[in-house]
Amino acid sequence: MILGLIFAFGVALTTGVGSVLQAMAARRAPRPVAGAGDVAVAGSVGRLVTSPLYLAGIGLDGMGFLCTVASLHWLPLFLVQCATASSVGVTAVVGRRLLGTVLDRRSFVALAGLGVGLVLLASGAKPEAAIAVNHGAQWWLVIAAAPVIAVGVVALRRSGARSGGALAIIAGFAFAGTGIASRILSNARSTHDVVVAPASYALVVFGIAGTAFFAAALQRIAVTTATAALFGVETLAASAVGLAVLGDSTRPGFVAPTAIGFVITLGCALGLALTDDLEAPPPVQEITPATITGHQDTP
Hints:
Helix content is 73%, strand content 1%. The chain contains 13 helices and 2 strands; from the N terminus they run αβαααααααααααβα. The radius of gyration is 19 Å and the shape is globular. It has a two-stranded parallel ribbon. It has helices at residues 2-28, 38-49, 52-71, 77-85, 87-98, 105-124, 135-156, 161-185, 191-196, 198-218, 223-244, 255-273, 289-292; strands at 31-32, 286-287.
C-alpha cells in the first residue's frame, strides 16, 4: 500500500513537470492560422511533438505512466487517477517559475486543498487486484477509441480557445482509456498475456491520440487550463469505470471520506484553471499553407 502511494506521488511529480516542458515547447512552436488547412495543422502538431523540449516532456510522461502501472498493482483506479489529477498543482507551481504563471491566494488555497483531498482518498483506498476482464469485453475498449479520435480530428480542424478546450477534454477521454487499459493489464501474469490482450492495443491507440490532442490543445490555451480540463475528464471517466466494472472499492466505513476527498481533489484541480487567465503566451510564428511548402507570399 505504501509503495503504491509512493508510485502515485511519482505520477503527480513527473506528469506535472512534463506538462510544463510540453507547454514551453508549444509556446515556441509555430501555430497554424485559421483556415490554413489540414496540411498546415498536421505540420504544426508534427513539428511540436518532435521538438526536443516536447520529447523531454513526453519522456517524463513515460516515467509517469510506468509509475501508474506500478501503483495500480496496489491501489484502486480512482486513487491513482486523483493522484494524476493533482499533478496540475505541480504544473502550477513549476509553471510559475518557468512560464510566468500567476498564482494568487486562491491558487495557494487550491494547492493546499489538493493535499487534503489526497490524504482523504488515501485513507479510504482499499488495496486489491482488478477484476479480470475477458478478451471479448476488452475489445469494446478498443472500439471506444474510434469515436474519441473522430471527434478529436474534427476539433483539430478548428482554431481558437474553444477548440483548445475541446481538444483538452478529448485528450482527457483518451487518457482515461489508457488508465482503464492499465488497470486491466495489472492482472497480466506474463509478457505473453500483455501482448495478446486487446487492452494493450487500446492502450497504444488511446496513448497516441491523447498525446496528439493534448499537444494541439497546448498550442491554443494555457497549460494549467489544458491540464485541469484533461485531468478532470480523465479522473471522472476512468474512476467511474473502475468503480462500476473493474472491482474498485473503498475500505468499510470510509465511503464518505473517500467521496469528500474525490470531490475536493477534483474541484481544486479544476479550480486552479480559473486562476490561470493571466498567463499570456508570447507571439509565435504562424504556419500557413505557403510556409508548409517552403514559399512565402510576396507583397
